[in-house]
């Protein structure tokens, strides 16, 4: 990955001036490259990483394993794209292993997620089975440790 993308991936709020200084390039060149990456849909967006517990965001997140029958001439893509379009879907990934898609879903509560699975996801032609796992607590998100006291705990030394 190019260094500019690495910097923005680590912290999307890094200013163009700081990036230019880090890369030894003019600010105008950095700004132009960022615009180009956005236009080419390499940079798809910018989001804040929020500790939902501290923000008191009432939501439930579930990880759903989905087994599907691939379609002729479409493979997994048509079904995966259809699933990805639902508002409840946070992310959708093609996987290797015992299931085909990993779908991350957000809902208001357990019932909301259950209704999505039974009413929308399971009814799609080609979906063979689902297995839903509810996320109880997050400790690390997108490379950032969450909800941990910043004071390092010293390990006990024994003779």
Topology:
Elements: H1 3-10, H2 16-23, H3 27-39, E1 60-68, H4 77-84, E2 89-94, E3 101-107, H5 110-121, E4 127-134, E5 140-141, E6 144-145
Antiparallel strand pairs: 1-3, 1-4, 2-3, 5-6
Helix pairs in contact: 2-3
Low-confidence stretches: none
The tally of structural domains comes to 2
What fraction strand? Answer: 15-25%
The strand order across the widest sheet is 2-3-1-4
Tell me about the biggest sheet? 4 strands, antiparallel
- Assigned CATH architecture of the largest domain: 2-Layer Sandwich
- Percent helix: 25-40%
Number of helices: 5
What is the CA-atom radius of gyration, in angstroms? 21 Å
Look at the helices and sheets and give the structural class: alpha+beta
Please, what is the CATH homologous superfamily of the largest domain? Lrp/AsnC effector binding domain/regulation of amino acid metabolism (RAM) domain
Which fold name corresponds to the CATH topology of the largest domain?
Answer: Alpha-Beta Plaits
Residue-averaged pLDDT, rounded? Answer: 91
Describe what this molecule looks like in 3D.
- The chain is α+β, with helices and mostly antiparallel strands.
- The protein has two domains: 3-39, no CATH class; 60-137, Alpha-Beta Plaits (2-Layer Sandwich), CATH 3.30.70.
- The chain contains five helices and six strands.
- The protein has helices spanning 3-10, 16-23, 27-39, 77-84, 110-121; strands at 60-68, 89-94, 101-107, 127-134, 140-141, 144-145.
- The chain is extended.
- The chain starts with a helix and ends in a 14-residue tail after the last strand.
- The model has no long low-confidence stretch (mean pLDDT 91).
């Amino acid at each position: 990955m190019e260094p500019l993308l690495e910097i923005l991936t680590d912290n999307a709020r890094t200013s163009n001036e700081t990036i230019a200084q880090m890369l030894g390039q003019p600010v105008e060149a950095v700004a132009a490259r960022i615009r180009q990456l956005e236009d080419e849909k390499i940079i798809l967006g910018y989001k804040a990483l929020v500790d939902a517990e501290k923000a008191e965001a009432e939501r439930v997140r579930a990880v759903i394993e989905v087994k599907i029958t691939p379609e002729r001439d479409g493979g997994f893509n048509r079904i995966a794209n259809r699933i990805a379009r639902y508002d409840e879907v946070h992310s959708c990934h093609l996987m290797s292993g015992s299931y085909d898609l990993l779908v991350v879903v957000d809902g208001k509560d357990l019932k909301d997620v259950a209704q999505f699975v039974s009413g929308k996801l399971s009814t799609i032609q080609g979906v063979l089975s689902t297995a839903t796992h509810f996320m109880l607590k997050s400790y690390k998100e997108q490379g950032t440790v969450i909800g941990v006291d910043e004071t390092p705990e010293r390990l006990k030394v024994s003779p």
